[in-house]
Amino acid sequence: MIAAEAGFGELRSGNLGVRIATTAAEIDAAQALRYRVFYEEMGAQPDAAAAAARRDSDAFDAVADHLLVLDHNLGEDAAAVVGTYRLIRRQAAERAGGFYSASEYDLGPLLDTCERVLELGRSCVDTAYRSKAAMQLLWSGIAAYVAKHRVELMFGCASLRGTDLNALAMQLTYLYRNHLAPPEIRPRALAERYVAMDLMEAARVDPRAALADLPPLVKGYLRLGGFVGDGAVIDDQFNTTDVCVVVKTDLVTRKYSRHYELQLGGKD
Q: 18, 141 in Cβ contact below 8 A?
């Protein structure tokens, strides 16, 4: 069994529940789901080890907390995993030599400004469960986790599908011109990976169309008052163009507090 100190119990909505993984088998199920979504569905290119194991995994999994959406109609524990989010706090990142996002972004300003930070990543949901209910459960789980650990700021790499900058120009320009993070918490893409986001003249950007074309996850961050860092990063292995998203947690906990306070008695 994995230490339970990171968890907050389980939140339920009908047959669906959300909680932190407590066994190696559950983490393995999350990695298998990530492989199906990232590699088989979205076209990422696995290395030989990933292809043989049919798992998406890396060194950060060992220090992370793994948030799971479970369908209890499918069974219990690993058999029920239908959604996941990887959560890494500062202390855990230090054990791994840094945050995953540091391979793409300079996080210095953000880490210098806030002590209690949380990196979000590797988010995916099985195709049969991409409903409002499942996404609300994931966010309720994040809110409960944030409250328990008194997280001040969340961040992570969010992906736009594809690497054609011409096709993504309006989305990237919209994000840069409307949601750029304040300097004191603004990550910046590493110099050797930096791709400018301000690719179009302002007059040519249709904000409504740009927003509509953004992935649901990015739109979710923006609805919570999220910002983006300076510069995008091309990830050829995953067939994505990444932006670094930063979210202050006060709005997250306010928006989703009713979900988890009712089920947890309002206690951390």
A: yes
What confidence tens digit (pLDDT) does each residue in 29-40 have? 999 999 999 999
Q: pLDDT tens digits, residue range 216-257?
A: 889 989 988 999 999 999 999 999 999 999 999 987 767 665
Contact (CB, 8 A) for 145 and 69 = no
Which residue from 138, 165, 178 is spatially nearest to 259, judged by alpha carbons?
Answer: 138
CB 105 within 8 A of CB 187: yes
Cα gap 124→161, rounded to integer Å: 14
Q: How far apart are CA 43 and CA 41, in angstroms?
A: 6
Q: How far apart are CA 114 and CA 51, in angstroms?
A: 38
Give the single-character DSSP code of 160: E
Regarding beta strands 117-125 and 153-161, do their DSSP bridges make them parallel or antiparallel, or are they unpaired? Answer: parallel
